Amino acid sequence: MNYLFMARKASQSSEALAFIVMHRWRNNSPEYRTNLAKYLIVLACCTATIGCDALSGPPTARARPAASGDDEEDHAAIAARRAEYLAAQAASSRRGSLAFADSARDRPENVAEWNAEHLWQARLSGDLRTIAAVPAFAENSVGDDEAAQALAKLLPSAKVLRARLAEEAAEAAESGEKPLPANVRVAPYLKLVAPVIAGLARIDTPSAREALVELLKGDLVTDINDREATRTVLKSMMQQGSPESDKILFQVLTQPEEFRQLLATTDSSTSGGTAQVGAAQLQEEALRQARFHASADLRARLAEHMVESPFAADLQAKFFALFQEPIRENLGAQAMLLSYRLWPSEAESKVARLLADASRRTLEIAWGLPISARSAPAPKRSRAAASRPNLRAESEIEEAESLAEIFWDEAFLQAVSQRVSAVDEVRPAGTLLQLALNLPATDVRRQMLRLFDRQWHVGPQAIQSIPGDVKAVLDPGMLVALKMIARNNMAGNPGSRRNGRLGANVRNDQAWTRTIEAMVQATARRWLAVATEGSPASTEEDTTNDQIPWKLPEDCEVVASTYAELPGQISCEPSCGVGNTSVHFLRGEVRDLPEKIQGHFQRELREAKRRSIEEGAWLSSLETLEDGKRVRSTDVLLKIQGLNNLASFDREVRMTVEILSIEIENPAR
Q1: Given this model, what pLDDT does residue 165 score?
Q2: Which residue, among 413, 402, 462, has the nearest Cα to 435 in the 3D structure?
């Protein structure tokens, strides 16, 4: 009971209750705890009955308790002094510009309703609900510079903040104002710093960015260590991905010495802002965060900087590692570096394949190809982009338009065209050609046509070795280019350079023919899917003979029809370099003699070549239009299930007719 006796003695002063509650008890025996609990219960009861009189009445005299040992009289004295202490504390807390209510009851239960003053009060009093309140406050204050200043006010460490408040209290005392209340605690809980930094990045105003730059420069000390603070700032700013934040991040990545000294310690084992980050460490951390969180604009700007101002070899390798990530935000940077031939040889093949898949997806969406008929995977988004509500709501059309800005840009198409023109052998350049085969630009088609011409003598094996095979080519213009080369090279074709030449390689010609047929069949299946399930830019549901470039047989029932032109469903920017391309597909059913139907299309299509195919016949024609400015390719597939030779079928039968007509600018001009 010695502690209780000392507490009674301390009750003679205004520190009685503080002595009981805050004393570092060393006696933890059960007997001690039991006696102390009884004492505090009695004290609480006395406070409830006497406290109100003590608050309303004058301060009580500092009288010693009676020597008779009367416990009730002792308890009454302690309760009176306690009431006097609480009254003085309440009066003090109402004074001064920095005064605040130290009770959580003064703040709304719903933290989403907290304002700047609530946050400040909670920070000073140690209310842990501040951690949850900050994100809601930031989300409701985007673009509000005063809100950013209020958040930045919460950042300094407890030690720094206490010193600052003490200085303000001293200044207030000198000017005659009341000093800060004695109960300001400035709770130093570490979990508050990250939400405040993320909130500043979300608000994204000049004051917010100023505070974040102070953290990057190490001028602002928080409750967490320097390395952790800079990591949080870089990640938050990259996840936000605003133009102004990207400007700061670009400078961090390219000129880190503007933020930190070149030589600094890197010890991150301590807290309270004592660990220092140097320029090299800052840049390395920025690269690490950029790998998964940087915006597409920031990546493209960094790639442009690499083109204009190459880095040292070791740093360049780190940036190449950043750009190799298979995410959509990297496509613009990857395309730029491919155009300028900056990719290391071991990385270019991988990057070209990623670009080829994205280019195919652009065409699949532009043409309205249904999901069930697509083969190109959707480019993955970075984790930061996937978490942004505005990007999650992006439609497929908007996605294709953003991709078209990369792949249909005139400068990029010209760069790829030049790369293709320098290809001597197909196999080493396979992934580059896979990309070129899905770029619907006249210049690219022209260079591919010339490549097909140079490779004709070795057969289609080299072309078929391109990843994805020519049957997977989505640009219909490439089919036209391939047919043009076949016309110029196959013996027996009108105008062929080999016409009448002895020793013609018939087997080689047959191999090319089979390759072209496979490409026609694949393209027809694709456009049948567009006609029946897709959503092309323009669809003719009731196609008539007046709307198509050829006349249909009598009694031919149109089952599906579609017509589309590039850029199809998506809008094309002024810098769009795609060639003028149109596709008309029709599927019909007719009951007649097979030979009669074949004769009809051979009369309709000038110089049409007829070849037998599985379950029917294939008629193919190629016409030059408008004084050589345009070329039209038409393929007719006549099919009867279970039949291999239409010519031997001498009775009426119901057959399927598929017509694929493609017009493009003449790539041979």
Answers
A1: 85
A2: 413
Query: Which helix (H) or strand (E) segment is 559 a member of?
Result: strand 557-565
Place of tokens 């940087």: 294
Q: Are 449 and 485 in contact (CB under 8 A)?
A: yes
Alpha helix positions (H), 533-612? 594-604
Instruction: Find the range with the poorest average confidence among 203-212, 616-625, 642-651.
Output: 642-651
- Tell me the C-alpha distance between 602 and 610, whole Å: 8
Spacing of C-alpha 216 from chain mean position: 24
3-state secondary structure of 409: strand
Task: Say yes or no to pLDDT of 279 above 80.
Answer: yes
Asked if residues 290 and 322 have their Cβ atoms less than 8 Å apart, the reply is yes
Q: Which residues contact 2 (CB under 8 A, 6 or more apart)?
A: none
Neighbouring-strand partners of residue 664: 581, 631
Does an H or E element contain 224, and which? none
Which residues is 637 bridged to in the sheet?
618, 658
Cβ–Cβ under 8 Å, residues 624 and 669: no
Q: For all residues of the chain together, what is the average pLDDT?
A: 80
Residue 85 pLDDT = 53
Q: Using alpha carbons, list the distances in angstroms from residue 82 to 5, 11, 12.
A: 17, 9, 11
609-613/653-665 β-pairing: unpaired
Are 276 and 218 spatial neighbours (Cβ–Cβ below 8 Å)?
Answer: yes
First CA to last CA across the chain, in angstroms?
109
Instruction: Give the SS3 label for residue 655.
Output: strand
d(C-alpha 133, C-alpha 190), whole Å = 15
Comparing CA positions, the residue from 293, 236, 283, 291 lying closest to residue 259 is: 283
Helix (H, G, I), strand (E, B) or coil at 520: helix
| pTM (two decimals) | 0.76
Cα 658 to Cα 270, 556, 584, 636, 637, distances in angstroms: 74, 11, 11, 6, 5
- Do residues 121 and 107 lie in contact, with contact meaning Cβ atoms separated by under 8 Å? yes
